[in-house]
Amino acid sequence: MVGNITNPLIVQGDSTVLLDVHNDYFESARTDINPFCELEKSPEHIHTYRISPLSLWNGASAGIGSEEIITTLEKYSRYPIPENVIFRINDLISRFGKLKLEQTDDPEVLYLNIDDKMIYAEIAGNKKLEKYLTPHSGGFYLRLYNRGTIKLELIKLGYPVEDLAPLKEGDPMDFSLRKISRDGSEFKVRDYQVEAAEAFVGNNRPGTGFGTIVLPCGSGKTIVGIKIIDLLKTNTLILTTNVAAVHQWIDELSDKGNLNPEDIGEYTGDRKEIKPITIGTYQILVWRKDKQSEYKHFQLFRERNWGLIIYDEVHLLPAPVFRVTAELQTIRRVGLTATLVREDGAEENVFSLVGPKRFEIPWKQLEAKGWIAEASCHEIRIDLSDDLKIEYAIADNRKKFRIASENPIKMEIAAELISNHREESILVIGQYIQQLQDISKVLKAPIITGKTPNQEREEIFEAFRQQKIKVLVVSKVANFAINLPDASVAIQISGTFGSRQEEAQRLGRILRPKKKNSYFYSIISRYTIEEEYAANRQQFLTEQGYKYHIEMWDQKEFIHE
């Protein structure tokens, strides 16, 4: 094809892809290119994507070949696809499958099969890899425990490994899903949740049983994990972000599955139970006395013959857990997340050590079907208070951000927004503890921070769920894995610099399906560095189809821009 001037895409020679937001085919084009493109920038009129090696290999792992990718680009492209981009797509996609990890007669040894002599020569000459690899017949032998390390090092060289070595079978466990929950309501796994679970499990043949599932906040990722347990029926280790999330997993497993209470263990700072299904936190895993000490809780990975590890909120997987995950390549493992964006740039670690993306569904698609709430996003820009302008002007960038974030005028706006939504359940979310404590006093609302004891935290959350509390102030501890189904308004008064994942998670607190729409407000100090970070924070959500309405706060009136 030679392109069509009315189409929404422009594919450039540097592998960037420009998408016209105002084109009639914008929505369908965005959906079709998302499996093999990465969003980089999303201002008002033109979104910029990049065709990267990792995005292409994620597509290849999902069965999307170079011909389908090129056909999709040609379908939406305004101009002919540059020849060098077509060559690059073909070249990168062709690398997926050229390196295969296969089993040998020795259960402790694997064979890296390479069908390209040039690639073999490059790897054979790599000094960093020679201590792991033993040459043999155009390939290499390696020890089983170096499986993850080799996969990660090779992807850094530009060569993804197709891992076909079999996974071990964990101890079996009698598990089945209930048709009626314990509260008497009917329980049925949604179609997309079944599809996600089956995409991960595959046919139980080599090359399946490891990977990541990307679903919006509020869409029931926990249910997907439970469905996977139902399909595999094996001893399972679940790792998540905090104690509240551990208890939510326990509640859901007890409510949706046929397990006895003694079959579920909690592995946290409070308890150290190891049962057929054990749920622990990342924090307890990476705890150690000092920087020279061992991570003594890593023994949890070896306490039972696990057949499945579930990494909840896998985009937050700490670096030390990545290291131990490199050793756990024989165990089925799934990462659950709303976004594969990692602010530390370690997406390749997730791809290599947990596994490639196996399933994803657009946020707006689930919203259209009523599986997550429809949300209206607003950015409210305010002036910096006069007494802070000089201090802001002479501060360094980090201090500038904090001054802008803690702008005291934000309390006025938050109070007025709460007044406008007095019948709603409202979360006020922020980054800085003193700011949150101050606004908690002004609003006479309870506050939850990292220092709130677990018991008190859960009592407050439960009171909020029962609507005994209408307004709750929370720090970033509420960013993740907190089930607050009736929350319909979130007011963000400060955030973690330009964290896209945090913005997505905070919106996710109000996306549980309900009969009314949800509102997400982000209050930003105008003409400050906070505006720049806010634009970056919104990037991921705008790619998902959310639009931020920009409103100015001027003389105590909202002016829509």
Write structural notes for this entry.
With 561 residues, this protein is of the alpha/beta class. The protein folds into 4 domains: 9-95, no CATH class; 100-163; 191-361, Rossmann fold, CATH 3.40.50.300; 371-560, P-loop containing nucleotide triphosphate hydrolases (Rossmann fold), CATH 3.40.50.300. The chain is built from 21 helices and 24 strands. The chain has an 8-stranded mixed beta sheet, with helices on both faces. The protein has a 7-stranded parallel beta sheet with strand order 12-13-11-14-15-10-16, sandwiched between helices. Strand 5 (99-103) and strand 6 form a beta hairpin. Helix 3 (66-76) packs antiparallel against helix 4 and helix 6 (147-156) packs antiparallel against helix 12 (347-354). The longest helix is centred in the middle third of the chain and has 14 residues, at 243-256.
